[in-house]
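Page 37, top half.
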Amino acid sequence: MVAERSDAFVFFGATGDLAFKQIFPALLGLIRDDGFDVPIIGVARSGDLESLQERARQSVAAAGAVDSGAIETLTSRLRYVKGSDDDVETFHALRRELGASQHPLHYLAIPPALFAEVVTNLAASGCAAGARVILEKPFGRDLASAIALNATVHEVFDEPAIFRIDHYLGKEPVQNLLYFRFANSFNEPLWNRDHVASVQVNMPEAFDVADRGAFYDRAGAIRDVVQNHLLQVVSLLAMEAPSGTTPEAVRNEQFKVLDSIRAVTPKDVVRGQYRGYRSVNGVAPDSTVETFAALRLHVDTWRWGGVPFYIRTGKSLPVTATEVLVEMKPPPQSVFGEAEPPDADYFRFRLAPDMSISLGGRAKKPGEAMVGESVELYASHESGTERPPYQRLIGDAAKGDQSLFGREDAVEAAWRVVDGILDDRTPLHEYEPGTWGPDAAAAVLAHGDRWHDPAVPAPAATVTAPEAPTAAVTAPAVQAAPGALGAAPTPAAVP
């Protein structure tokens, strides 16, 4: 077991897209904020040290970095090993480049199909001794490959040295789900099957696959975001309180949720593909890969039995956002005899592009009649002060902190949930770009439920309180109610 802080950082795929968009900016942030003072070694098939340094400068400039001192420190610490993932001589050259480093952190920013070979070569060259390894998602392609990959990696690394990264777990809004659940006593009496009617996790994306056609056509929406990002969110929403403050206490409860979710069957999923996807460069002309998925999950626990959990995600949808909506059951009777049944109360957790928590309910309209309207209490959070997820996660891995990383049993449990609906085992429905996916998505809904479409919030006027500078009460959707403090951040489609 590696207890010491990592004394070198190695990243395979140093000239790739992930390194450019995420790893270089994360390393710059660690140098600037945390004094990350270890050698940084890039491994790739082409280029040289000078070209890698220039790519690093371009990367951090694209990310908006202006700290010239930190940028200079980053480029001066860069080293380079040119070679192939399947050539053990490349790894011997890496061991020489590591010099006196005894506890390197290896980041495999490469396709998952190459993980096993790289791990084997790390061991053969001595680079794995005393080391840690970060494995980028997806971890495997299905349950069988995940089990086999875990077995291969465990031949070289013990579980405490393996960091299966899912950057979603490093996002501040996602961590806020866990905090909100267990820092507030008013949640517990309501957070169960007696009061919750349904739970929805929506992750629409307005953009298409762009230049990622070759990658996406090997993955699809279920592998790309459902098996990892969105099931992790479900585990945080549905877990029991951790039994302690250790990282394992939280991860134990997350595993229990994933292990309790019934394997999804074809009747509980609808897959879609946006019109024009098959003409994207790198996509097969007869591709049956889904760019949209809608699922109904059954969480078979005492707390959640009978409560449907819905997941919906896709490319080329109307907006880019991530949102959780927990819909409560209605009152047992209509005390005020309103002609139209009121919308249900709800909790809304906005995870992207902004971070907020909302409580939707009913309030009386001004006037003599006992008639109500929907209102929303809205608390927003200032962004920009938290560390970006990759910076946070790489720093945690260098310290050996596994709190925000996937554990072997949890990863395999998540694959088990979706294993029966991967590839073309269910029909594929075409949908027009810019819509909310195929109409067939309604088929996964139960009990008269409906999809709640997130929207990009409009700027809202707020009244600032001295002790709660970001809290505000907002009016009903679209039209402000008399006396409300600001315009609502959500559209009329939301309850």
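Page 37, bottom half:
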Amino acid sequence: MEVITDAQIALFVQQYFLPFARIGALLMTMPVIGTRIVPARSRIVAAFFLTVMVVPLLPPLQVAPSLSLGTAILVMHELLIGLALGFGMQVVFQVFVLTGQYLAMKMGLGFASMNDPTNGVQTTVLSQFYLVLVTLTFISVNGHLLLIEMLLQSFQTLPPTQFQFGREQAFQVVNLGGWLFASALVISLPVMTSLLVVNMAFGVMSRAAPQLNIFAVGFPFTLMCGMLLVWLGLGTFGMHFEEIFAEGFVFARELLRLKP
């Protein structure tokens, strides 16, 4: 009977399980594929086949003792790389969701919420509209394939057992928070400024004609103006999509240390 040695187990873990951990972490968190709509079994199977294709292209890895603290730390680093990349691209998607939240609250549509099937949370109707629009655009330009390609390229720049997820990479992920709110505000600022002018005009009207029911007239008019401005703003959606996702892929390349 053939006996499986400790060295063989260590070689299997480092040749297959480490790349599988990085790829699987990305597929579990990335947009579109990592949503709750895609079954977890399908993502695991996809990660398995990608790992089988990637491992023959990797250089020989340094063998470490299996079932040790060092091996567990290596697996954790691989998981952090995939999770950070997937989380970063999720933040890019949330820029447009937050834009919808800003506009909905300014227009008076904050009460019109619905369940987001991809994340399992309650979002405004306008946020859901932007999320569907950006998801379809992302798939149409093969953004999900480009993201997977970048991860596969990272095995050349960040080979397993030779890279540690440190403070620099953690700060890159943390800095996405400020960029998220700033980018969403820049996109929604034209509509919010226009609605502010409309509200100021109604404020002047309420002072000039106190008998006018400003709530009965102002709310539907503000809502119609907001919807009109959102419709007009769709003409620049492609430009905003290109800028935001360009910055998102710059973050991914810097995280994975890929050349531009």
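Margin note: The chain has a mean pLDDT of 81.
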